[in-house]
Structure formats: C-alpha cells, structure tokens
Amino acid sequence: MGLTLTLRQPSMLAAMSIPPPTGQVEQPAIHVHGLEKSFKQLKVLRGVDIDVARASIFALLGSNGAGKTTVVKILSTLLKADAGTARVNGFDVAAQAADVRESISLTGQFAAVDEILSGRENLILVAKLRHLKGPHAIADDLLRRFSLTEAGTRRVVTYSGGMRRRLDIAMSLIGNPPVIFLDEPTTGLDPEARIEVWQAIKELAHGGTTVLLTTQYLDEAEQLADRIAILHEGRIIVNGTLDELKQLLPPAKIEYVEKQPSLEDVFLTLVGARTNKEQR
Amino acid sequence: MNKHFVGDTAVLLGRSLRHIARSPDTIITTAIMPIAFMLLFVYVFGGAIETGTDSYVKYLLPGILIITIASGISYTAFRLFLDMKGGIFERFQSMPIARSSVLWAHVLTSLVANLISLVVVIGVALIMGFRTGAGVSGWLAVAGILVLFTLALTWIAVIPGLTAKTLDGASAFSYPLIFLPFVSSAFVPTESMPGPVRAFAEHQPVTSIVNAIRDLFSQQPVGTDIWIALAWCAGILVLAYLFANLTYRRKVS
Questions:
Q1: Among A106, A115, A168, whose Cβ lies nearest the Cβ of B94?
Q2: Alpha carbon distance B180, B87 (integer Å)
Q3: In the list A240, B42, B96, B199, which could disulfide-bond A101, CB 3.0-4.6 Å?
Q4: Model pTM greater than 0.95?
C-alpha cells in the first residue's frame, strides 16, 4: 500500500502543474469491492471484489447462475447493488450513473439489435442516441471494420448468428467508450463465428479499450483474457493470469500422448476446405 | 428533465415508426375488426336496432372509433414487450439517453398508428354512407377527444408491456377494453337495457365519449357529455401515466 502511494506522488505533483494527466489514468478501469446482491431470499453475490486494469481483457468465469450477469448488470447501471462499491472509469455506478453510462457499452447475452431495421440503421440509431456528429459516416466505417458492408442495407432478421453478434459488438463500439461489457459474447455461436468474435474482442483491447467479458467457456477465457477470475457461489474464488491459475495445480507432468485432432480442428478444416473450393 | 429528452424521443420515435412502416399489417389488423363490426352491425343487425336516427352508420361510428383505439393500443404493449425480451431495451438503458424517452417514443408511435387506423375506419364509414355536416372546429374537437382517449389507453397499455411474462399476456389486457363499448350507448340506446346494466352503461367512460362525438358529428349541442368525457380521459390518462412510470422506475433500477 505504502509503495503505491510513494510511486503515485510524483505524478500527482506533476498533475498539479500540467493539467491533463489526471488521477484517473492510474485508477483501474473497473473497481469493485464487497459487492452484494440478493433477489428475494436468494443471495446471488456475497461480496465480490474485482479490479480491472485499463486496456486489458478481463474474463469473469462461472457456471450458469453463478452471478456473472448480475455483476455486469450492476456495473452497467441496470441493477442496483445491495451493498459494496463499484466504480467504472472512475465513476460510482450508483451516485454517478449518468457518467458511467457515458463511459460504457453493454453487449448483453441476447444480441441487442433491432431485427426490423437494417444493420446500417441499427448503427445509425446508436450513434444518434450517443449524440454523435455524422452518424452515417460512423455507421459506414463500422460496417467496413466488421465486414458487414454488403449486408448493411439488409434487415437484421436475415443475418446469421455470427453476423448479429458482430453487429452487436460494432454497436457497442460507437462513441469509443473506454469500457465495454460483453456478457457471454459467443454463447450459441458456431465455431467460425466464435473465432470472428474473438478476433474483434482482441482488436478492441489493442485499441486501448477495457473489456470485461463473462463466459462459461474455459477456452474462451484462455484465448482472450489477460486476467481471469472465477465467480463461484457469489464470491471470486480465484483471480489471476492464466499462468498464475495454472500454478494453482501441481506442476505438469511430462507424458507422451498421440496428438489427436480435436473435433473443432476437424470441423474447421473440412468447412474451411469447402469454403475455399466454393470461392475458386 | 434531461437535456436530451426531445432529441432522444425523436430518434426512438423514428425507429418505432419504421417498424410500423415495415409491418403495415399491424395497422390493417387494427382496422379490420372495427370495420367488420361496422359491416356486421350496419348490414346485418342494423335493421332490427331502433336508434331513433336517420342513419345507423352515423349512430354507430363513434363506438367503432373507440373499438379501433382499444384494439390498436394492444400493439404498444406488444412492441414494448418485444423490446424488453430482446436485448435492445437493456442496451438503451445502459446508454447515456433520457430514460423516459424510451416510453414516450412508444406512446407517440401508438398515437400515430392509431390516427392512421382511425382515418382508414372513417374512410370505410364514408363509403358506407356516413355523412356529417361537422365543420373544422367540430372535427378538431372529435380529433382532440380521440387523441386524449388514445393517450390514456396507451399509457394503460405500457403497464402490461413492461410487466407481462408472455406475449399473449402483453396483449390480452385489451380484450375487456374492446368489449366495453358493447355495454354502452355505442350500439344501442341505453334506454333499452335492463336497470343494472343500464346504470353501468350510463356511468362508464365510453358512453359519455360516444355521446359527445355523436353530438359533434350531428352538430347538436354537446351539453355536459363532452366535459364528462374529457374528465374521464384526463383522469384515466393521469392515473395510467403515474402508474406506468412507477412500474417503469421499478423495472429499470
């Protein structure tokens, strides 16, 4: 504790003379302490503590009903916590909800897109609601980035699951919010679509966005996350990098096993081969 | 009030109006039942109904307009329910917008959709021989009553839209509203009804609204009916608005 204070002091002094570098930069993008939430008799969260560094991907792992979505809903101001504090981008979710909403984007479990509108209209809608200038240009740019330009004028009801998710994530990027919540972003997607979505998430973090994602797929957390926390029975039972988590188990033994392709490898090879053939 | 309220409401209204433009069947379905009732009552039952007026379609139309609105507002509950079930409602709630604009957009959409349905129904009535000597001020008064009634019923529709568990539940609440005109002066004069039914018919909102519109169409002095009608509409509107907003606040926080 004392160490961080001494480390911080020089920059705090600097901040006094030169305005911009605010204290916010050093705060974690998301800070959660002692978060509790009950639904009637059911205690869903029993004291959750999380810190997420800026521009990192943080995965919240847990089985169904562990409370992952509840955490995300509290952080995105959709639910009020019973106890504890939660700050997003330096703003308290309860006291400064409007500032939090300016700082975040939420992509919920069900693709939050308007099926009757076209993909482009969905993007324009969000850009307008974020009160941005040039909503049409913003929409066209995002359609390009997410390879949806051709489908842009089609109604979303005709989109595949992967396309919907991509549009959903594209909608979340409008206005470049510093923090993005992705609640089970790949649930219900086929393997190819999952990889597309993973790629999009990785690019986000490269661009400096903080991503908190929840998932029940262990490989997803392994693929994407800088840090992983496991939420179990309303508490965070472990929190660390992938390597740190691996060290919790006894060291790996060296065993020689025949390398079998996984079903996913088989599927992707076959499907990939076919798409290549069709393209020719 | 949030400084973005008007702008956000306009953007969300544009979205909902696009929905209607792309599924005009909601307007047609809204208009079909009242038109069917109108045909049935004018050409089948009408000959046996003694109203003491020259034209039964003229007698009937005000009640038919009420039925049009009562069936039209169930689409507000329907659309709100779909927004709640899909993720888009949560997306809006997590964005820096004026939160009340989400409801207002649906309410104003209902107003636009119902006005279109009403125009369709009145058009059919004109073909069936409905004529009125009412001037601009008379028509404006009729429109005013209908707008107020639509707003009142729409705010009622917001409540099941927010709270329903199933799609059927979201729209089923409108059935009693559709049948309310049948126990009123809409189809037959209340004088022909037995005592208790007549007492109910004469003291429920539809009768005074129907009578007021009927007087306006036939250029009769409207008397106290219009004030009773306006009082009913305003009363229902205020109560439904307050209750809907209470439900909404409970839902979103």
A1: A106
A2: 35
A3: B96
A4: no
